[in-house]
Design goal:
The structure holds 2 protein chains of 2 kinds.
Chain A: E1 4-15, E2 23-33, E3 37-41, H1 48-56, E4 64-73, E5 76-77, H2 83-89, E6 94-97, H3 101-104, H4 111-122, H5 127-140, H6 146-150, H7 159-171, E7 177-181, H8 189-206, E8 209-214, H9 217-223, E9 226-231, E10 234-240, H10 241-246, H11 251-259, E11 276-289, E12 297-310, E13 314-318, H12 325-332, E14 340-345, E15 348-349, H13 355-362, E16 365-368, H14 382-392, H15 397-410, H16 427-439, E17 445-449, H17 457-474, E18 477-482, H18 485-491, E19 494-499, E20 502-508, H19 509-512, H20 519-527, E21 533-534, E22 539-540, H21 541-548
Helix pairs in contact in A: 4-5, 4-7, 5-7, 7-8, 8-20, 11-17, 14-15, 14-16, 15-16
Chain B: H1 2-28, H2 34-39, H3 45-55, H4 61-73, H5 87-122, H6 127-141, H7 144-158, H8 174-208, H9 211-218, H10 223-252, H11 255-260, H12 266-275, H13 279-307
Helix pairs in contact in B: 1-4, 1-13, 5-6, 5-8, 5-10, 6-8, 7-8, 8-10, 9-10, 10-13, 12-13
The chains are: A alpha/beta, B mainly alpha.
């Protein structure tokens, strides 16, 4: 076909130089045409990023090597192209934007100059013409005050603005192909929505072919024309968006779609008369920046947050980054000290008692953190990690280890995992270990701070199920902090919506997430990607509503 | 920026104050009579009394301190017990050789080491990398006097290209100064090349894994630009730190090199003073060394802010 921009045919990428290295990419074939967005979907380790880096010729030298197949850009073979030719093609014919806008820009060079580099490397324009073109491109990505931003350093810009700079940099020479590797994953939903529509808009104006890599089915539903599903280096299924979402033919795709939590809240559980285990009363945290001379700056991270949590219930705190949700969680657990307000744990005020007096109360409230790769000590066995808490509270070591085995079974891991180290487990397993560690002290309250955010959807679904089951068995109360409304809809009884440190809206999840009263909550729900699709039932939400009526 | 500089200079005052107090007490708090310590073993009672008078030892301690600091601020560091020359003058004569050798060494080391480190990191894991690292192990392990004597043997005695030793002020002509500077500079820079090359390589390896380096490559700019413009500037902070502290060390303590090449620098002055218990000179050297460290640290911090716009104080 004449308008095929990218043609990957039977590509194989292996580890290392030896002929018998394992294949990371094992014979995948995809095509992207002009004006088309192909979404490459898959869970971590499926090889989607390796595919894109192979295309750009940016694979780490010597560690990953393409060993078969072909990658053609507008008919030109890339796998055999010289380094020099690849350099010429980058930014002019193919460009790439990356996941982390926070780290993708050089921190010590003003952003305007970073875009300018592209023009200096590939065009013969003079300084004035280059500047004009850059400012024009920055206007096209809807950056405000382009003259000011041109001279700004990256750390002065927000994540969304940085990603706009990346997009401007990628598209300034109107490449035929844009590769977007999870470009919105690190952004808040409202920013994500803007960036997605920006990419669509620019694609329409420039006729760019887009290879869009993501793990998020919601984003796929928003932006894809066609979808290619990858798993362990192989192509599972490919087809137009509607076909893949409605009639996935492969088992793996069906499972992947079924794992996507629905935005429609689960049926509310009955109200309980169980005792209140956790209460926060007008909790505030103010960070003061002390200046050497002159006046300091004050940042109100949490402003008079009040919430209650009953035994056996789950309360969600939702909000975007910087909303103060993690600050509240950390104040409640007293990892940081609140500036004012109270926290009552099982009827006992703990907000202002000393660390020493707090010690006996610590075991009643335990926390599970976001990143399972960094929250377990890599040099300590899993068993010792779990037993450490009880041992601190005077339990004999042997008893604590016995309990650790039981807990590992409870979270669905083999008891012999006690003697292994964290690196021997996957992300989902590590999060199970982190949960077992938290449960070891028989807490009344479990705080889960973005505890499933770093996990793939299928694993996420399993961990959510585990939390639910543990709650039913142990009657534990869960304070669930998340930015993901889908997750909140599936696990929370009540939700608190936070913005700029304040509670914007709170109430039963079924109520708040279906009939939001506040504009901010509405905006959040509106920005949730793929809100029109009911993935688990393979149909648009509207049809589902029609069917049940 | 000016405000920051001013604040930093002000912050250095208490540091120097504490050092001054320490130096002052060094003599007064040592057991026994300071005058006896100063005068040495064969002092006559008259000499002791004269020293007491001149140091004001009969005054209260606080008055002594104030007078001492006052003198200090007017550039009066006392008189050497051995040569009877003003300490200020003795140090003044020794400063130029020391600064010359320190500057030459650090400049040579940076010129050689930074490119070596960058290349080693760029060609990480290849024979070039291993060669550079091997060289740096060698630089660390061969003592400076061995390098010095080998250089003298080859270039001064066998080939007769340069004088064996000595120092000429740069103000008496660049030629003679340069001739005599080459060998000590080369000998001394050996270890600094090793140190800075290692540091540069490590910092570059860190930075080369960063996302913005990948971004730079994705732009299609050439590798030299990627290395210099994107990687090296970000790797510069730890490298600058090593260069700065290395420089301070060089000024205050290169006794061996000064001895091998017979250069009248501060290092030898210090050692001579310590061996002869020439307390006024020792005191002055402690003050001077601290001052050098404070100034160098200030310069390093200023360099940070110039290199990395995120660093603000």
């Amino acid at each position: 076909m004449t308008d095929t921009i990218l043609d990957i045919n039977n590509l194989v990428v292996s580890i290392g130089k030896q002929p018998k290295g394992a294949n990371i990419i094992d014979g995948i074939s995809i095509q992207v045409r002009e004006r088309e967005t192909l979404c490459l979907v898959g869970e971590s380790g499926s090889g989607k990023s390796v595919t894109s880096l192979t295309t750009m010729g940016l694979l780490p030298k010597g560690t990953l090597v393409p060993t078969g197949g072909s990658v053609k850009l507008v008919g030109e073979e890339l796998l055999t192209a010289t380094d020099r030719r690849l350099r010429q093609l980058r930014a002019t014919k193919m460009a790439m934007i990356f996941q982390e806008p926070m780290t993708a820009l050089n921190p010590v060079v003003p952003v305007g100059r970073q875009i300018d580099e592209v023009l200096r490397a590939h065009t013969k324009l003079d300084a004035k013409a280059r500047r004009k073109r850059i400012l024009d491109m920055m206007e096209q990505v809807h950056l405000p005050q382009v003259e000011r931003i041109f001279a700004s350093y990256p750390h002065r810009l927000s994540g969304g603005q940085r990603q706009r700079i990346m997009i401007a940099m990628a598209l300034v020479l109107e490449p035929k192909l844009l590769i977007a590797d999870e470009p919105t994953t690190a952004l808040d939903v409202t920013t994500q929505k803007q960036i997605l529509s920006l990419i669509r808009e620019l694609q329409r104006d420039h006729g760019t072919a887009v290879l869009f890599i993501t793990h998020d089915m919601g984003v796929v539903a928003e932006i894809a024309d066609r979808v290619a599903v990858m798993r362990q280096g192989r192509l599972v299924e490919t087809g137009p968006l509607e076909t893949v979402l409605r009639n996935p033919t492969m088992e793996y795709t069906r499972n992947l779609l079924s794992s996507v939590p629905s935005l429609v809240p689960r049926p509310p559980r009955e109200e309980t008369r169980e005792p209140v285990v956790l209460e926060a009363n007008e909790l505030s945290k103010v960070y003061k920046e002390r200046a050497f001379f002159g006046k300091g700056r004050e940042v109100v991270a949490a402003d008079k947050v009040t919430l209650t949590l009953r035994k056996g219930r789950t309360l969600g705190i939702v909000g975007e980054s910087g909303s103060g949700k993690s600050t509240v969680a950390r104040c409640i657990v007293r990892l940081i000290d609140p500036t004012s307000g109270g926290v009552r744990l099982a009827g006992r005020e703990i907000a202002d008692i000393s660390r020493r007096l707090l010690q006996p109360h610590r075991q009643k409230i335990q926390i599970v953190f976001q990143d399972p790769y960094r929250s377990l000590n890599p040099r300590v066995t899993v068993g010792e990690s779990i037993a450490e808490g009880p041992v601190n509270y005077g339990v004999a070591h042997a008893d604590a280890m016995k309990r650790a085995r039981e807990l590992l079974e409870l979270v669905g891991l083999p008891p012999d995992a006690v003697s292994r180290y964290p690196h021997q487990f996957s992300g989902g397993q590590r999060q199970r270990i982190a949960i077992a560690r938290a449960l070891a002290l028989d807490p009344d309250v479990l705080v889960a701070d973005e505890a499933v955010s770093a996990l793939d959807v299928s694993v996420q679904a399993q961990v959510l199920e585990l939390l639910d089951e543990i709650q039913k068995r142990l009657g534990i109360a869960i304070l669930f902090i998340t930015h993901d409304l889908r997750v909140a809809a599936q696990i929370c009884d009540e939700v608190v919506v936070m913005q700029h440190g304040r509670v914007v809206e709170q109430g039963p999840a079924a109520e708040v997430l279906t009939h939001p009263k506040e504009a901010y909550t509405k905006a959040l729900l509106d920005a949730a990607p793929g809100r029109g699709w009911d993935f688990a039932n393979f149909r648009p939400v509207a049809e589902g509503v029609g069917a049940t009526l | 920026m000016l405000g920051y500089l001013l604040r930093r200079i002000l912050a250095a005052v208490p540091v120097m104050g504490v050092v001054a107090l320490f130096v002052f007490l060094l003599l007064r708090l040592t057991p026994g009579d300071p005058a006896a310590i100063l005068a040495g073993d064969n002092a006559t009672p008259e000499r002791l009394e004269r020293i007491r008078e001149s140091l004001g030892l009969n005054e209260p301690l606080i008055v002594q301190f104030v007078t001492w600091v006052n003198k200090l601020l007017h550039g009066d560091l006392g008189t050497s017990l051995i040569s009877n020359l003003p300490v200020m003058k003795m140090i003044g004569q020794r400063v130029e050789p020391s600064i010359s050798i320190a500057l030459c060494t650090i400049i040579l080391a940076v010129i050689v080491a930074v490119p070596l480190g960058v290349i080693a990191a760029w060609k990480h894991g290849t024979w070039i990398d291993r060669f550079v690292m091997g060289l740096s192990v060698l630089g660390f392990s061969v003592p400076v006097f061995v390098v010095g004597y080998v250089l003298i043997q080859v270039f001064a005695i066998e080939l007769r290209w340069v004088p064996v030793q000595g120092f000429r002020s740069i103000f008496n002509g660049f030629g003679p100064f340069f001739e005599r500077m080459i060998l000590p500079t080369c000998a001394l820079s050996f270890i600094y090349v090793a140190l800075i090359a290692r540091m540069t390589r490590a910092a570059m390896l860190d930075v080369l894994g960063e996302d913005y380096v990948r971004t730079a490559r994705a732009k299609g700019i050439n590798e030299v630009a990627v290395m210099m413009r994107h990687a090296l500037r970000n790797a510069a902070v730890p490298v600058i730190t090593v260069i700065g502290t290395g420089f301070a060390l060089l000024i205050s303590g290169v006794v061996v090199t000064e001895s091998v090449f017979n250069i009248p620098g501060i290092g030898r002055l210090t050692v001579d003073a310590v061996l002869a218990r020439d307390y006024p000179v020792i005191q002055a050297m402690i003050l001077l060394t601290s001052l050098i460290y404070v100034v160098v640290n200030l310069l390093i911090d200023v360099a940070y802010t110039l290199l990395d716009p995120r660093i603000r104080y």
